[in-house]
Amino acid sequence: MSVRTDILDKLMNAVLQFDEKAAIEAAEEALEAGVDPLEAIDKGLRRGIAVVGEKFEQGEMFLPHLVMAADVMTAASKVLEKGIPKEKLSETQQGIVVVGTVKDDIHDIGKNLVAGLLKANSFQVHDLGRDVPISRFIESAENLNAELIAVSSLMTVTMPGQRQLIEDLKELGIRDKFKVLVGGGPVTEDWAREIGADGYAANASEAVKVAKRLVGRG
Ligand code: B12
Is the domain of 52 the same as that of 130? Predict the structure, then answer.
């Protein structure tokens, strides 16, 4: 087994075993071994938390397990994020982005990764947090003169909030002022098209690419 796959497995297993210490150690090992931090998050930690999610769905794990797995993922992600190279701000200033997780949805690990990576790529990020009312997305985007609104949703029951945002923008006659980027576990390209979003991305690095394209600097 290669060093890389060994480390990715260690990250996955640390999440599955709710072992924060092991996850941080594996994250540090990943950085030392030169493993791409985003790959370590996606193919290591996220793979682990996906299994926890499946076991939860099948009734083999319960809410406290989700909480513990989320804590481990967050702690190890923080270590790995330090290894993400930052673009030089002055050279490539990107647009202003308002980011948040839709109302009634408290999942924010993925949203935080997207926000962090946009920041690392010189976007001016205003993170509204999680469980964000539609009106706050709109007010903030208007007040900050944002170019992009990036909305995360991790549950099928909260996905309609993304549609609502777009409908409200239309109703207010300001749909054309902002680009809307959607993402999160159950969100798909088809859903994005159906609700009339401007972009969709399946992970944080794709989100940066799409965001750059949407603000015309890709
Ligand atoms: C961790 C977790 C929790 C934690 C969240 C902690 C936190 N601070 O976020 C806690 C324990 C709080 C939690 C609670 C609940 N959870 Co939960 N949770 C999860 C779990 C296991 C992992 C989610 C996660 O963080 N993944 C890792 C990140 C990195 O991945 P990601 O979020 O998908 O993000 C990536 C991409 O999607 C994308 N992305 C994300 N956001 C955005 C935004 C934009 C704009 C773009 C472009 C891209 C993008 O980039 C990210 C990085 O690559 C999932 C299972 C799963 N497979 O998703 C269930 C899951 C989402 N939860 C679920 C449920 C049901 C709940 C609860 C209702 C449980 C309960 N009975 O109380 C509550 C929700 C309460 C609420 N009102 O929100 C269900 C949802 C089912 C559904 N399809 O609707 C899931 C799918 C589990 C399951 N299989 O049943 N949960």
Answer: no
Residue 205 Cα: closest atom of ligand 1:
53
User: Measuring from atom 77 of ligand 1, which residue has the nearest CA?
Assistant: 105
pLDDT of residue 92: 59
Amino acid at 43: K
Note whether 77 and 104 are same-domain residues.
no
Quote the DSSP letter at residue 134: H
Residue 91 lies in a domain: no
Domain count across the chain: 2
Closest CA to 199 of 133, 157, 147: 147
The pLDDT assigned to 218 comes to 62
Of 49, 81, 113, the position where a domain reaches its end is 81
- Which residue segment(s) compose the domain that 72 sits in? 3-81
Query: Encoding tokens for residue 17?
Result: 């075993």
* Gap from CA of 185 to ligand 1 centroid (Å): 7
Residue 141: name the closest of 99, 112, 110 by CA. Answer: 99
Q: Is the pTM of this model over 0.85?
A: yes
Place 86 in a pLDDT band, splitting at 50, 70 and 90. confident
Verify that 66 and 135 share a domain, yes or no.
no
Return the amino acid letter for 124: Q
Ligand 1 residue neighbourhood (C-beta within 6 Å) = 42, 46, 49-50, 52-53, 56-57, 63, 66-67, 69-70, 104-111, 113-114, 150-152, 154-157, 181-186, 201, 203-204, 207
Rounded Cα–Cα distance for residues 130 and 31 (Å): 29
Whether residue 86 lies inside any domain: the answer is no
